[in-house]
C-alpha cells in the first residue's frame, strides 16, 4: 500500500514511518522543512514539501495514495490563541484529506486523544470531548469518522497524553522540560490524577494494524499503561534530575493546566482483543529512567 503520512518525522510519526516501511508499505511523507524531508528520505520514504496549511499539497498527497495516516499538529501550546490556531489548521487539513478520499473506499486514519470519564477508565466506546481547549480536535475527528457513510474507511487512533521513547515525549516530556526550567519537578493538585501512556514503537504498530484492518468509522485506544499517578511521574523525573518534587499551581502549565489537572485513565482492552495488538516496549515509569540529569 502507498501511504501518505503527515507528521512523519515527529516522535510518533517517525516510528509509524519505520513500521510501515518494515512491513512492505511505501510511504510518502509531508515535510514542512528540508530537514524533515531529509529525515524521511533517510528512513526510506519519499518526501513532499509542504505544511498542513498547504491544502493543495495535502489534497494531492491523498489523491495519489492508497491510504492516509494523519499525525501532524502544530504542537504550539504557548497560549490559548496558539493552541486554537493549531486546532483550526488541523481541522482544515483533515477536511481536505477526507474530501479527496470520498467514495474511494481507501483508509484515512487520524489521531486524537483518549477521552476522560469521571470515576473510571475511558473505553473506545466513550465519545470525545467537543468543548474545552482541544474540543475542536474532537469535532474534527468526529467529522472524519462520519466519512464512513461517504465511502471512506475512516478510523481514529486515540493516543494517551504521554507517548514516550527513551524517556521523552508527551505530557511527561513537558513535565521534564518545565522541571528543568523551574528547578522543581512539579505536579498540579495532589498529583493523584492518572495519565495513560504508550511507547511510541507500540503505538506505531497499532497505526499500521488500523490502516490495514480497521472497519470504517471506528475508534481505537493506543494505551499500554492505563493510568500512572502524576506525582509518581514527577517523582521519577525529580529523582533523575535531582530536583525537589512538589505540588505547583495549575497555572505553571499554561494553556494545558486544566488538562494536566484532570484524572484521565484509559483502557485498551477492546483494541488489544479485536486487533491482536500486543504492546511490548517499556512502560512509562521504566522509560523515564532514561532521562539524563
UniProtKB/TrEMBL annotation:
It comes from Kribbella aluminosa. This is Nucleoside-diphosphate-sugar epimerase. Gene3D superfamilies: NAD(P)-binding Rossmann-like Domain. InterPro entries: Epimerase_deHydtase (IPR001509), NAD(P)-bd_dom_sf (IPR036291), NAD(P)-dependent_oxidoreduct (IPR051783). It comes from the Bacteria. Residues 3-216 form the NAD-dependent epimerase/dehydratase domain. Residues 113-134 are annotated as: Disordered. Signal peptide: none annotated.
